[in-house]
Amino acid sequence: MLFGGGSAEREISLRSGNAVLAALRSRGVDAHAFDPAARPLSDLKAEGYARVFLILHGRGGEDGTAQGALEMLGIPYTGSGVMASAVGMDKWRTKLLWRGAGLPVPDYALLGADSDFAAVERQLGLPLFVKPANEGSSVGITKVKEPGALVQAYREAAKHDALVLAERYLGGGEFTVGMLGDGNEARALPVVRIVPATEFYDYEAKYFRDDTRYFCPSGLPPDKEAEMQALAKQAFTVLGCRGWGRVDVLLDQDGTPHLLEINTAPGMTDHSLVPMAARAAGIEFPDLCLKVLELAHVG
Question: Is 42 a catalytic residue?
Answer without folding.
Answer: no
